[in-house]
Specification:
alpha+beta, Sulfite Oxidase, Chain A, domain 2, 5-stranded mixed sheet, globular
């Protein structure tokens, strides 16, 4: 189910003309990691989240196996679903109809971009547990990874573990009814 939703989100966003993979600038290292990130697009409450704001929100800890290092890591941060709810993104029983034809585009400071369908991030559909993490093993994320990294523990490959998150945009696909 998770794989189908991810493929569907990628296909839908691609059909809307949204680039869903790494942009040409993704190969270059970012000059500076953002100290905040934004949540915008088709949301009722656009947000700029500063690190201090993130520290004050309800916290979650995930222990995951990092497929690259083959080591267990403990990430702490805020559930992505909580952040989207704060921005007014439909969730739960509100996530139906045209809202299901929307996706979340996540952009990193180095130009890397990935897409999630809204259903993938909603506990009413599945337990995705995607986390906007700001610490690993009790320490702030190192430069080049943080200050905020998305951790998607149920993805078989960590390709959507976005480091240096700078923006999240809800994209409503054209023609959605």
């Amino acid at each position: 189910m998770r794989r189908i939703l991810g493929i569907a989100a990628t296909a839908l966003c691609a059909s809307a003309g949204v680039i869903c993979a790494a942009s040409p600038g993704a190969q270059k290292a970012a000059t500076a990691s953002p100290a905040q990130f934004s949540i915008g697009g088709t949301v009722s409450t656009p947000l700029t989240i500063f690190l201090d704001d993130l520290k004050k929100m309800p916290r979650t800890t995930l222990r995951v196996m990092n497929p690259h290092s083959q080591k267990m890591e403990a990430y702490e941060g805020v559930a992505l679903a909580t952040l989207l709810e704060k921005a007014g993104v439909p969730h739960g029983e509100q996530l139906r109809g045209a809202a299901l034809a929307s996706c979340l585009l996540v952009e990193a400071a180095d130009g890397y971009r990935v897409v999630y369908s809204l259903a993938e991030l909603d506990s009413g559909f599945q337990d995705s547990e995607v986390l906007a993490a700001d610490t690993m093993d009790g320490a702030p994320l190192r430069e080049g990874v943080g200050p905020v990294r998305l951790v998607a523990p149920h993805d078989k490959r960590p390709a959507r573990w976005v480091r240096m998150v700078k923006a999240m945009t809800i994209v409503k696909l054209p023609g959605a009814k």
